[in-house]
Amino acid sequence: MPLSNLLTELFEDIDKPVILWQAGIILVCLAVGWGLARLLRTAFARPEEGSSSVVQVGVARFSYVLTPLLIAGLLAIAKLVALPYLGNIKLLRVALPLVASVAVIRTVFYLLRRAFARRGPLGAALVTFEKIISLLVWLALAMYLTGLWVEVLHYLNTTTLPIGKNHVSLEAILQGAVSVVILVMLAVWAGAALEERLMGVAGLHPSLRVVMARMGKSILIVVSVLLSLSLVGIDLTVLSVFGGALGVGLGLGLQKIASNYVSGFVILLERSLAIGDMITVDKFSGKVTQINTRYTVLQGLDGTETVIPNEMLISGPVQNLSLTSRQVRVATQLTVAFDTDLAKLMPQIVEVCLGVERVLHDPEPAVVLKNFGADGFELDVGMWIQDPENGRGGLLSEVNLGIWSLLQREGVSLPYPTRDLRIADPKLSTLLETIAAKQ
Asked: Contact, 370 vs 380, CB < 8 A?
């Protein structure tokens, strides 16, 4: 039966009993598919002991795609089972591509959003791309139902384009483009799922998680591109020309980019930095929030984010406050008068420091007599913390306020600098005395 007569013959058979049987089968498939999807969504959304939250969230989102996929699968099975008994199954032949089109659109949307917008709002380009895909799917469905699909395929197969010494049909080019897009999209989605899974493994070092996620995603994308090219029939030896051109490009103008990428993998593999570390490089300080293959992001205590090329972290000195230990010493200084009883005051200052929440009790704060200054005893008050990412300003302010309250209670004075000024010229001294007397 020509496809061009599918819709016409469907309307001609609309009053026959076989249509009712097919409508009943479609309704049963819709109900069963919707029920199965709901059961699966409920089962995976219910938190269970030992279950992964990543898996639960992923399946809960995939349930949006699962319903049309199950219905399409049930309709395909029903079509095969009903064909020997009913013979005339035009309604099923129309319903199956309709549901399959919805399944394809939702699956593509799911993969795109999971791969490119899983942590933020949808971008305008992604929304536009989704609209284009929807339009193409519905256009293909319309051509299939009206019988134009065979004619379009024949035209694409017979029309060739000269590529070098060979002639390639438009159908092969379109198949290659579609296969590349689909496999790369699946690879990106699988890489994103792998990254989420690895980031949730508590037993791995943070840097090792990142490098495994980056390498896994890169390998998946490369394999998907090579596989799609081989499926189309493109000889992979032609990539040697591209490899030579890439080598020349790296030698001429891409040294910095290549150096940053290599430095990124070196940083991740040697574990000299990890997400959450407090570091200082050049004039920038902050917490490491991202370690990418080309750059590292530092978030300062004021919220400012700095993008540091990875080459700077390899070629220059980096101060890491939490490489082997997160304990960091913080100190403040004060000067007290020479008549102060240090034996009594110094233990009291230690007690003030221990009363601050962030100050560690082991190692204990210490107060040392640093110097006999010109105006009094110079004391150094040192303490240890284990959360350098929270900054030092608030801690020092709280400690200083506590010490000031202690000094006021104990009557300890903070001496002012005193200077003895003598004027060698007696005439100038007399003049200044006269001016002071007149005032």
From this structure: yes
Q: CA 57: distance to chain centroid?
A: 16
What is residue 287's three-state secondary structure?
strand
Using alpha carbons, list the distances in angstroms from residue 40 to 43, 114, 385: 5, 20, 48
Structure tokens at 366: 């210490």
Q: In which residue are the tokens 């090792």 written?
A: 208
Contact 79, 93 (CB under 8 A): yes
Element (H, E) at 257: helix 255-270
pLDDT, tens only, 341-391: 999 999 999 999 999 999 999 889 999 999 998 888 999 999 999 888 788
* φ/ψ (deg, to 5) at 372: -90, 100
Q: Is 4 helix (H, G, I), strand (E, B) or coil?
A: helix
Domains of the chain: 1-158 (no CATH), 328-410 (3.30.70.100)
Q: Where are the beta strands (DSSP E) in 344-413?
A: 366-372, 377-385
Q: Which residue has the tokens 């989605």?
A: 189
The torsion angles phi and psi of 116, rounded to 5 degrees, stand at -120, -15
Q: Which two tokens stand for residue 70?
A: 């199950």
Based on its alpha-carbon atoms, the radius of gyration of the chain, rounded to whole angstroms, reads 37
Instruction: Look up tokens 């399409």; give the residue.
Output: 72
- Cβ(399)–Cβ(383) under 8 Å? yes
DSSP secondary structure letter of residue 273:
-
Q: What is the DSSP string of 296-337?
A: EEEE-TTS-EEEEEHHHHHHS-EEETTSS---EEEEEEEEE-
Distance CA 53, CA 47 (A): 8
Exposure on the CB side of residue 235, measured as CA atoms within 13 A: 5
- CB neighbour burial string for 192-219, b if at least 16 within 10 angstroms, e if fewer: bbebbbbbeeeeeebbbbbbbbbebbee
| Angle between helices 53-86 and 17-45 in degrees, nearest 10 | 160
Per-residue pLDDT reduced to its tens digit, 230-280: 766 665 565 565 666 666 665 656 677 777 778 887 877 777 787 888 888
Q: How many CB atoms lie within 10 A of CB 292?
A: 15
| Structure-block tokens of residue 55 | 């898996």
DSSP string for 24-80: HHHHHHHHHHHHHHHHHHHHHHS--TT--HHHHHHHHHHHHHHHHHHHHHHHHHHHH
CA nearest neighbour of 333 among 377, 392, 391: 377
- What is this structure's pTM? 0.49
